[in-house]
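For the sake of transparency, this paper describes our internal protein records without simplification. Because each token names a local backbone shape, the row as a whole describes the fold. One such record is reproduced below, unchanged from the form in which we store it:
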Amino acid sequence: MTAARNRPLFIGLILALLFLGFALDRLGYMSGVRTFVQTALVPLQEATTGVAQNVSAQLEQSQSVQLLQARNAELEALNNKLMVDNVRLRELERENELLRQLLNYTRSNLQFSYQTTTVIGRSIGVDPTNLLYFVYVNVGARDGIAENMPVITDRGLVGRVTAVGPNLAQVLMLIDPASAVNALIQNSRVTGLVRGNIDGTLIMERIPQDAKVNPGDIVLTSGLGGNFPDKLVIGQVTEVVKRDQDMFQTARIRPTVDFGKLETMLIITSFQPVDFEAEILRAQESEN
């Protein structure tokens, strides 16, 4: 009841103060008060402005960080994509270069038909007494591949096919100790037998003692025996061993093919190996 009774009094007092302030302002007495109030409020205004600016700067910085993080994520994703694309392009360039080299070889050696193939696996025996160097390729009987077909690259002889499945084949590499090929020295035309060596090199045996063999000589297949075509590059002589007590001299051969980096190769499909002993036996049997 008291509050309701005093309400008109409060209202009247407020109106009187407003009227007094208006009158004083019209008379010019409020300028000093206004200046004092404004001066007193300056620190508060500055503090308020500083806080507002700080909050605004933090918001802008937070937004900038988020934008930078998003941009960095985009650039990182783009960099990863470009790196993968670059790797693919390099592999395609490498593959195309290998295929171009093989194509140039086939164009220069039109006497044979070829089947391009790619290495899909390797196998190296662990028994030193029976060390086998094999590679597996992605063509087989369905592609016309048969056992004993020669396998080459543009750099030289790799080996021969020793087993065939419907869609793949096994190739015994020239560096295997079980491998052997009749060969000749290109300059002197001296013949011998090249075998694989346990250290991954080649040894040329049965070279006559009086034959002239020098380091740097090129060794080719001779075609003798009928197991391989002639004139396929085997390697280069690096060392000659000649002892008076031996019937033959030997030579160490560095193969021109890098057997540790075989990828794409050629199988000579038109060459038919000849088994001379079987041919002679058949001829004798027919005569009898």
Summary: The radius of gyration is 46 Å.
